[in-house]
Request: fold
Amino acid sequence: MQITNVHEVLQRCIDYHGHYCAGQSLGVRIAKKGLELVAAEDQKDLIVFVENDRCIADAVLMATGTRLGRRSLKFVDYGKMAATFVNLKTDTAYRVVLKPVDHDKAPRDDGQEEVKERVLTLEDDELLSWKKVKVRLRKEELPGKPERIVNCVQCGEKVFDAKDLDGNGTVAGPFCVSCVRGAYYEASI
Ligand SMILES: [Zn+2]
Ligand SMILES: [Zn+2]
Reply:
């Protein structure tokens, strides 16, 4: 699994994302480098962690063939321009980060062909940095059938994939995360 034709892949990213932006070219470059580094032979051996939910996230998922709903793409909410590539078969992982740009010299993100080309043709080390890392994936986080499904003792909703929590101190669980730590939403009338 490698990206050989960056232009073709970029076009697929633009179609999926809905517009061209520098994030698409940058995401393709991050994906290309990550795929080279971990050298997964099969799609099912590849897991990608993407560290933001901005433009590059769409490009990384399209360019790598990973999907959130297939558990091959993991979203980690760090707000960083980075992604980690894991080859499950060889147990190899690399984190690829976009280098900070010199804003005076950086191409303006105005969607021009020239900008697109420049991002696609810069040398890897002008654009990116990368490091070998170790990612510990629990079996409940891998693709495949759910290993654990429980009902929260408080709200009664099902919780998949061992995301449940033990007792809240006074009552034995399992609890869902929102019942123990509070939810991102509030009840409304
Ligand atoms: Zn965009
Ligand atoms: Zn609950």
Observations:
- The helical segments are 6-17, 22-38, 55-64, 113-121, 124-127, 177-181.
- The first strand starts at residue 46 and ends at 50.
